[in-house]
Design brief:
alpha/beta, TIM Barrel, 311 residues, 17% strand, binds zinc ion, binds (5S)-5-amino-3-OXO-hexanoic acid
């Protein structure tokens, strides 16, 4: 693993797993996303991962005008690295998902390393009524959903990344995805230093268990040696236990309402910043490691710089 003492914190603001009924604090409109992105950056996030939603209904969207509005609004007030998703949502094609990269030419964007089942339908058991018509159908549809990222899809996506100077953050939901990354690295489609996000706890991917994180880490060490660094996101209530394990192992962390709505048992997080503050405190008190600034993060991940983006 690349050696870097300071911890890179990512705030993932809204995502496509949760629906507005689940939390009044989930950001939906561009203004809400910008406000929460700025607060999260001020709390210590050097990377802000963004999805966008239809401002009226809260439905996940691939509208590049919305991405531009949110990215430029966060960039105007912070030095954080704005990282758009190319994972999008269940309802989008790969073409729709990747469109944000040529439009915004970001420094960093997510890049998903394999096709998989991606089921968030079990969450609907906790809700009887929904604020919007689309929500329950959307959750239920994930029972029959394949998150498509074939080898051909990934090759096409990486081509777009390369053409626009955008670094891919490799979203790995299971051990096999690390081997896919290795295959692409050996073919010269990915370059060192690799930035890998271990995404744990998605139904269809590896479970959010400590021994699985150890296995992901040991596998990455074997495959990539000093050519990579890792960050961990645990979906749901394992977010903080896995974050603590990751920073103890020398890794980095992602938190945010995209993957976890709760600050503690039964206590909704009132903002993304609240989740960032908690992980910053945990990191400092458990490990003594400092939190990386955006400039340190840019240098460490070898990003092109905020002056090279198109927003
Ligand atoms: N919400 C994560 C489980 C992406 O945006 O490309 C998936 C994710 C993927 O963040
Ligand atoms: Zn995402």
């Amino acid at each position: 693993m690349q050696d870097h003492d300071n911890v890179i914190v990512t705030a993932a603001l809204t995502g496509a797993i949760h629906v507005p009924t689940m939390s009044p604090y989930l950001p939906v409109t561009p203004d809400e996303l910008i406000e929460q992105g700025i607060e999260a950056a001020e709390a210590g996030a050097s990377i802000v991962h963004i999805h966008v939603r239809d401002p009226e209904t809260g439905e996940p969207s691939s509208d590049t005008d919305l991405f531009r509005e949110v990215a430029s609004g966060i960039q105007a007030e912070t030095n954080a690295i704005v990282q758009p998703t190319t994972g999008g949502s269940a309802a989008m094609s790969v073409k729709e998902r990747i469109a944000v990269v040529p439009e915004l030419e970001p420094e960093l964007a997510s890049c998903n390393m394999g096709s998989m089942n991606f089921g968030f339908y079990p969450i609907q058991q906790a809700y009887d009524e929904y604020d919007h018509d689309w929500e329950q159908e959307y959750l239920e549809a994930s029972r029959d959903f394949i998150f498509a990222n074939t080898f051909k899809d990934i090759e096409g996506v990486l081509d777009v990344f390369e053409n626009h100077g955008t670094k891919p953050e490799l979203e790995c939901y299971d051990v096999g995805h690390l081997h896919t990354a290795k295959h692409l690295f050996d073919r010269g489609l990915l370059e060192s230093p690799l930035r890998i996000q271990f995404v744990m706890g998605i139904h269809g991917g590896i479970a959010a268990e400590p021994e699985h994180l150890t296995h992901m880490y040991e596998t990455a060490e074997k495959l990539f040696g000093d050519d990579y660094s890792f960050s961990v996101v645990g979906a749901g209530r394992k977010e903080f236990p896995l974050a603590t394990q990751s920073v103890s192992m020398g890794g980095h962390v992602r938190v945010g309402l995209e993957d976890n709505l709760y600050l503690g048992r039964g206590e909704l997080a009132k903002s993304n910043a609240a989740l960032v503050e908690k992980v910053v405190d945990l990191t400092k008190s458990v490990t003594g490691r400092a939190i990386a600034t955006p400039e340190e993060t840019r240098e460490f991940l070898d990003l092109k710089g905020a002056d090279e983006v198109n927003f």
